[in-house]
Amino acid sequence: MRTWMVAGALAGVLSASGAAVAAPAPVPEADLAFHGTAVMSGDKVEVKLTPRNGGPAAVPDATVRLRWSVALAEAQQLPARCAREDERTVVCGTGALAVHGVGGQLDVPVRLKETPSEVTLEIDKVWGGGTTDKDHTNDQVQVLVLATGDAYAF
Question: In angstroms, how far is CA 138 from the centroid of its own chain?
């Protein structure tokens, strides 16, 4: 018969056989947010976005998802750190983000399958580089972009 006892809040578990099992290390916390603009002209949408890390931990890399309300054209010329996920979605790596740091701007031009008068763009964090983000208020944003050639900020 095994008996278990907890030796302190984070000290781990000690079994009757005497083998210690370490408690999992706490996951670092970071608050990721993405800000930028989207401009649509004809069948082209140019998204410029800048990742920000509100801390308290650094982020080794993160991934942001850009999803449009309409299908994208088959052929795309995406930046090196971006990839097509499905017919309406592109994912991009941000690179490392220092504590309270601002990452490099991502320029993501896409072509739409059609020429709509408006499109909704959803931007959300997919992966935070092994960190946890307890503030979910800024994890996702939706932007209505009209085909006016004007920059719509998020």
Answer: 11
Strand segments, DSSP code E, in 94-132 are: 106-111, 118-127
Rounded Cα distance between 65 and 94, Å, is 11
The C-alpha atoms of residue 14 and residue 6 are separated, in whole angstroms, by 7
Could you give the CA distance from residue 37 to residue 26 in angstroms, rounded to a whole number?
A: 35
How would you list the strands of the sheet with 20-21, edge to edge?
A: 4-6, 13-15, 20-21
Any bridge partners for residue 9, and if so which? none
The pLDDT > 90 percentage for the chain reads 75
* pLDDT tens per residue, range 79-137: 999 999 999 999 999 999 999 999 999 999 999 999 999 999 999 999 998 998 888 88
Rounded CA gap, 51 and 56, in Å?
15
Which residues does 136 contact at the CB level (< 8 Å), separation at least 6? none
For residues 6 and 110, give the distance between their C-alpha atoms in angstroms, rounded to a whole number: 55
Radius of gyration of the chain (CA): 21
Phi, psi of 121 (to 5 degrees): -110, 125
